């Protein structure tokens, strides 16, 4: 079965989908995106992804109204054509193609892209056993709340983490405060309290983050958002990273030293279980 793409009004197999070499997404990273997941044919948390996509578009002065109006239908159609039940859906809206110039051209038509790929239980081993992470300086820009495809810093940070044999780079700002992972939000458990950095322009407002905080509250797990240091991380009872694609992955080693018992912790396990249950429930939205 071919993986399905949609580009500017046309569905086709992914290998046949092309955009112009003058696309500003390619030349400037002048574009925004979303990654969503479908479970058993249902797109999970679609509303929250669309809200964030709307916000990202507005913050880069990109008019997404027309695309947003048709997006739910296009996603459904792309998923249907793919025939996948469990899938990763990628949506990207770029400024469009125009002769290269930093200034935003008037009357430019945005490039609209969707892809659908199958999603098996790709992270089962990491979810079960936990992973190691390294702490790195957050060298990204000051607007990580915008989900833009300007991802070079994230790519380099992830490279550095993988070179060090770690699964994720956990990032700290210039004051030594935890921000997030290179492609995930970070949570720690200290004395039974679930803690995570509060939302700011320096982190992405993760949909998974939001859902996990709701689930924790409903389950009676105390939750606190606020500043976390490298020492808090190193001394935590549990640490985990979370995103749409990985769901919840325990971090059992940080900077080469074990976190807590060196095994995935009970609150991490519990939250992942609750999350999976919710995501797989029909109309889990
Ligand atoms: N990344 N922070 C960053 C920097 C991310 O790239 C992501 C997700 C998250 C988690 O967001 P959410 O829970 O909404 O997926 C946090 C996606 C999955 C990606 O780029 O592939």
Relevant terms:
285 residues; alpha+beta; nine-stranded mixed sheet; six-stranded antiparallel sheet; 15 strands; globular; binds N-(5'-phosphopyridoxyl)-D-alanine
Blueprint of the fold:
Layout: E1 4-7, E2 10-13, H1 24-28, E3 31-39, E4 42-43, H2 46-59, H3 65-82, E5 87-94, E6 111-118, H4 124-129, E7 131-137, H5 152-163, E8 168-172, E9 178-181, E10 185-190, E11 193-196, H6 207-218, E12 223-225, H7 230-234, E13 238-243, E14 247-254, E15 257-258, H8 266-280
Parallel strand pairs: 7-8, 7-14, 11-12
Antiparallel strand pairs: 1-2, 1-6, 3-4, 3-5, 5-6, 8-9, 10-11, 10-13, 13-14, 14-15
Helix pairs in contact: 6-8
N-(5'-phosphopyridoxyl)-D-alanine is lined by residues 35, 180, 183-185, 204, 206-209, 243-245.
Describe, in plain words, how this protein is organized in 3D.
With 285 residues, the chain is an alpha+beta fold. 31% of the residues lie in helices and 28% in strands. Helix 6 (207-218) crosses helix 8. It binds N-(5'-phosphopyridoxyl)-D-alanine.
């Amino acid at each position: 079965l071919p993986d399905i793409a949609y580009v500017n009004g046309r569905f086709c197999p992914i290998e046949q989908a092309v955009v112009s070499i003058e696309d500003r997404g390619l030349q400037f990273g002048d574009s925004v995106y979303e990654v969503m997941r479908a479970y058993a044919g249902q797109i999970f948390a679609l509303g929250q992804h669309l809200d964030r996509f709307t916000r990202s578009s507005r913050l880069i002065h990109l008019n997404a109204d027309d695309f947003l109006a048709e997006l739910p239908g296009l996603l459904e159609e792309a998923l249907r054509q793919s025939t996948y039940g469990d899938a990763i859906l990628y949506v990207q809206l770029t400024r469009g193609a125009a002769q290269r110039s930093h200034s935003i051209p008037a009357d430019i038509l945005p490039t609209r892209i969707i892809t659908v790929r199958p999603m098996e239980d790709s992270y089962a081993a990491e979810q079960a056993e936990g992973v190691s992470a390294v702490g790195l300086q957050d060298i990204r820009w000051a607007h990580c709340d915008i989900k833009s495809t300007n991802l070079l810093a994230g790519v380099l940070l992830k490279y550095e983490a993988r070179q060090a044999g770690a699964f994720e780079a956990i990032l700290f700002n210039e004051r030594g405060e935890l921000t997030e992972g290179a492609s995930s939000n970070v949570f720690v458990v200290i004395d039974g309290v679930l803690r995570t950095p509060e939302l700011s322009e320096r982190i992405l407002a993760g949909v998974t983050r939001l859902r996990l905080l709701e689930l924790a509250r409903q389950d009676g797990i105390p939750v606190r958002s606020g500043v976390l240091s490298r020492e808090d991380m190193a001394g935590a009872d549990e640490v985990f990273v979370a995103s749409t694609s990985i769901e919840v992955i325990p971090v059992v080693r940080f900077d080469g030293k074990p976190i807590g018992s060196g095994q995935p912790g009970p609150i991490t396990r519990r939250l992942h279980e609750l999350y999976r249950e919710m995501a797989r429930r029909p109309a889990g939205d």
